[in-house]
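Q: A reviewer asked whether we had any structural model of the full assembly, not just the individual parts. We don't, so I'm hoping you can provide one. Inputs are below.
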Amino acid sequence: MQLTNDEILALDRQHVWHPYSSFLNPSPTYAVASASGVTLTLADGRTLIDGMSSWWSVLHGYNHPRLNAALRNQSEAMSHVMFGGLTHEPAVSLCQQLVRLSPPGLNKVFLSDSGSVSVEVAMKMALQFWHSQGRPEKHRFVALTNGYHGDTFGAMSVCDPVTGMHHLFSRNLQQQYFATRPSSRFDAPFDESDLASIRELLATHSDIAAVILEPIVQGAGGMWMYSPEYLKAVRELCDQHQVLLIADEIATGFGRTGKLFACEHAGISPDILCLGKTLTGGYMTLAATLCNDQVSDGICRGEAGVFMHGPTFMGNPLACAVAGESIRLLLEGNWQERIGTIEAQLRRELEPCRELDRVVDVRVLGGIGVVELDQAPDMQTLQPAFVEAGIWVRPFGRLVYIMPPYVASESEISALTGGIYSVVSAL
Ligand SMILES: *Cc1c(COP(=O)(O)O)cnc(C)c1O
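A: Here is a predicted structure for the entire assembly that you could use as a starting point for your response.
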């Protein structure tokens, strides 16, 4: 290593943007030297147990020998080749896996570089589809409050307008419709009145191309887990009103909620599905947008005759090879049992947080545990407190949450839940 820990951090503060960061009021930042299994090793020598899976993405732990080998082998064949007019086994095999595993009907796959881009692609698919049906007026989207779909302009337009600070960008941002998010919890009885808001939007507006939502678990916009009955009803409403359904499973895909895809909780298929984050097991950036044959046929019979999108790094062979191996690893293992075990442990060990003064809610689904506080804590003190406790937990607003890698052991998960309890109780 050329730079000391202090040099890395000094240069970082001087030049480097981080997600949602400020140079004037930088939040505590730590240099990582390496990562293996569920452990991050900091450049200052400390080790942390990772509770974040690097934002949902690391399923099998860091530095996994099988994923390393997939990457190494593919790099020796070819790291990249353009996807216009050329194809290759890693991409074709991955798309076949995705079609096989995803909810029925999704049959065509568009590969792209990041979750946000896969959402842009989904939105463009819906627009081109309705254009081809002679319904170009269907150009708006219905999204849910507290939703999160990414940071590019199209994706941003369907994020929660308040937490997404839409007013800063209003001159450039497409105006969409927002339905109130369902209040019925995942495992509570379904309250029919949850449907009033979306029902009214769909009944009163004829310019809607699609509903876009995160099925079952709203991620970055509020870590909220809602009733499958809502999702089932939205699917029916979309059919009734001739509106497409886009399911954004960028966070929930590949087992995190206890089903391979969250749509399975409701037994529905969307018309368009977005995958990202977990797709390569956290190794590389790669995303996919799947659609059914009705959507793809419509697009291809339309005025353009083609789908109007084509990223330079589309179908990157390194990313596709790792994604394929990550999916094989997942399916070979007992992932559903693992998630069940993690879920039971998170419930057992996070539940005591409910008694703490600052805690207003505790919720768990699959491999996701959330402790909601009464107000946003001061990250300047909270982040170092978690690091002192030897765990990597990064709260967001009022939400302290973890989604450990599936390979996390019982004692590693206990370190996470115990650390959360002691840090939150000291607030
Ligand atoms: C993270 C996320 C995105 C955006 O993905 P990026 O890879 O960060 O662009 C979109 N939708 C959901 C549900 C996400 O969790």
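A: Points you may want to mention in the reply: The mean pLDDT is 97. The first helix runs from residue 5 to 15.
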